[in-house]
Write a structure and sequence with these properties.
The structure is a homodimer.
Chain A (H helix, E strand, L loop, with lengths): L15 H8 L3 H8 L7 H14 L5 H6 L6 E6 L5 H16 L3 E6 L5 H10 L4 E6 L3 H14 L3 E5 L8 E4 L1 H14 L5 E4 L6 H16 L4 H4 E3 L10 H12 L7 E4 L2 H13 L9 E3 L16 E3 L2 H17 L8 E4 L2 E3 L11
Parallel strand pairs in A: 1-2, 1-3, 3-4, 4-5, 5-11, 6-7, 6-8, 8-9
Antiparallel strand pairs in A: 10-12
Helix pairs in contact in A: 1-2, 5-13, 8-9, 11-12
Chain A binds a DNA duplex (16 and 16 nucleotides) through helix 2 and helix 4.
Amino acid sequence: MPKKSPLRPASQIRSTADFARHVGLARTTVSRVLNRQPGLKQKTIDRVQQALAETGFTPNAHALHLKGKRTAMIGICMDDLLMPPAVRKLATLQRLLRVRGFSSLIEVFSPGVGREVVQHFLSMRVEAVVFIGYFHREEIEARIAGLIARGTPHLVIDHFGLKHANTISLDRAVGMAAVVNHLLDFGHRTFGLLGVAQSPSSRFDRVTGLRAALQARGLDFDACTLTLDHLHERRNDFDYGHQLATSFLLQPRPPTAFLALNDEIAIGAMRALQEAGLKLPRDASVVGFNNQPACLMTSPTLTTVDQCIDDTIASASEVIFAQLDHPPRAKPIIRMIAPQLVVRESTGPVRRT
Amino acid sequence: MPKKSPLRPASQIRSTADFARHVGLARTTVSRVLNRQPGLKQKTIDRVQQALAETGFTPNAHALHLKGKRTAMIGICMDDLLMPPAVRKLATLQRLLRVRGFSSLIEVFSPGVGREVVQHFLSMRVEAVVFIGYFHREEIEARIAGLIARGTPHLVIDHFGLKHANTISLDRAVGMAAVVNHLLDFGHRTFGLLGVAQSPSSRFDRVTGLRAALQARGLDFDACTLTLDHLHERRNDFDYGHQLATSFLLQPRPPTAFLALNDEIAIGAMRALQEAGLKLPRDASVVGFNNQPACLMTSPTLTTVDQCIDDTIASASEVIFAQLDHPPRAKPIIRMIAPQLVVRESTGPVRRT
DNA sequence: CTGAAAGCGCTTACAG
DNA sequence: CTGAAAGCGCTTACAG
């Protein structure tokens, strides 16, 4: 046997029929080797395997699926491929699916193309459709209704509160409670909300959590919190945090602690506070959200909330496979993941005045 | 007509035959509507369209592809789904492909599973395979040889120097030349290399570029540059940059300018220098690579090199579609993208001693 | 417009 | 082991 048999042009071999002719065996026999069926001579198996390696022939998966072989494909709709936490969820899920032999069809489900994307997944006969992120409510609810009607399993990761949807999402209320208790223990009683207050549902449940946590300690939400989100054009980045914090410093009695929608805003706020001459955490505490690598790159390092993405996605794959293995249930599956407070240097005791 | 016709269970309708029966038309007629063929009464078209919407029926793409319809799928192999620049390339490419009607099969091509991944793509009869990132050389070269033998178009984005491979990659030599000229103009003559010096090919061509740029200005590489990479365990993060810069400050005559492998290392180095009491850029200049959002979140903001990902990916899609539209050429296509120096606050005139 | 037929590439009994 | 056949879900002539 030559050390490295040269790759012969396999362009002519397009089907098992061609391939069987090339090896000099019956189509049936080749098919049996391909599917590892018993009752074949080792010599035949070897002959086919070698020809397979030499020609690089691969059976057409579309024909297999037509014959009823499962596609082992999962469709994944992303709201955005540029948000690091969403991409981390995707990467983690993709790996877990692959381990179980599933491959992923990934598309961005942007407003207006949702129908087309899901249609494409269905035409490929994916075994389940997963949504990661936040979507246009009516559009995704329509897609989910369609999937349920067809009997195709689905799962929504993050976007909470969709009608009839199987959902796994972060319990942001729990996260905010952890944050606020941490700060209350340090003596803080006034909280500046950075990008947290406005309408989208992901923000809404944070406010709920905050309100409940304050109430549990006998404090009133409206008396303790302040938001200036309306003063600047809403964004989710460093500059927005910088602008917000700057505006807070112009207030007669600025809060002593700041809770940001995400790490970027928190880092922008820290910078603004430091530029105004404040020492952190001596003069103010700041908390982010998401626990991104940048939290370790600031000085002081940023206290933040970790999404526990591994837990989320482990749970997600459970829910997906449970649906694949069992008949659909009447009630949607709803799971909440508890986030984890990560205490670092940007939070400390309130300054005694 | 009811305002919103309820979705009827479409579970029973699995084929155009079923569907045709449901609408009360011939399979042929349904097929013609589905494929927008001429010569049909508007009334028939409407009837089919409505039934399509009501039942949510979608023709089986696998059967279409069996019949010879192009799959319009591109396989994309990623080295890693957690590196932001690679993911940005993926996101950009995916969008461009989608605009042209192509969908993407995305898999992580990790060492050892490369064969399996490409095999899967080929079994799905993708029209081209794209690799984004850096791979195990022999493994990817074997895959590319197989693709060429089959006549399946391919493209490698980033990994330069692979045998027979169509490649688009960043001309890092040009980038380093821009950096070094910028610093030479500020009077710097000693350069600390942070993670740039060691073996992987992506680093190698940086050194080449540096060497050439220095030589063009009559300077000697070995006399001007210093590396301490060997002192610490190689990583690509903030801490590694911090460690390297700290070690540099222990040297008898530390360099006045630092060139980092990436932004994270640069930011770590800046922090270490600042913690040692240096003011930047007065006492030292630092340059990153990749132009990530974090570059704007530091103080001073980080001078860096932008990969021009939009250009890279626009070029990539050109190369892919060129291969799809034309017969394969004998010579591999090689394109280089010129990166762009982004000057910010972390670089300045060398300090007069 | 309808209907019957062929064929894409596979697998799976079934008879030799 | 081989060979002929049926059928998965589609499209595309072809004859009515």
